[in-house]
Target: UPF0145 protein GCE9029_02036
Amino acid sequence: MILTTTPTVQGREIRHYHGVVVGEAILGANIFKDIFASIRDIVGGRSAAYEQELAKAREIAFEELRERARAAGGNAVVGIDLDYEVVGPNGGMLMVSVSGTAVTI
Model:
């Protein structure tokens, strides 16, 4: 499965458009990770706990995108857009949304 943010795949012809496909993942960041992230924010540096959660959510969203593209009959997804959001009453959840157009090349 070819995944690209560009509207075409260089050197390949798009033979059929199957429509928009979306993959989403929402993961909660637990209280211990929040505490350690807060400490890291105070002293500076990167928060490995949040980076790991984002990576996990991104992997889930892309796998869901692939599955939906296959189900639609595509073998590639073009024009991919990747968005990150903090959701929930106190911003306690991380959402990754990936969308694009399933195509056959």
Strands lie at 2-3, 16-28, 76-87, 93-104. The mean pLDDT is 85. The two ends are 10 Å apart (CA to CA).
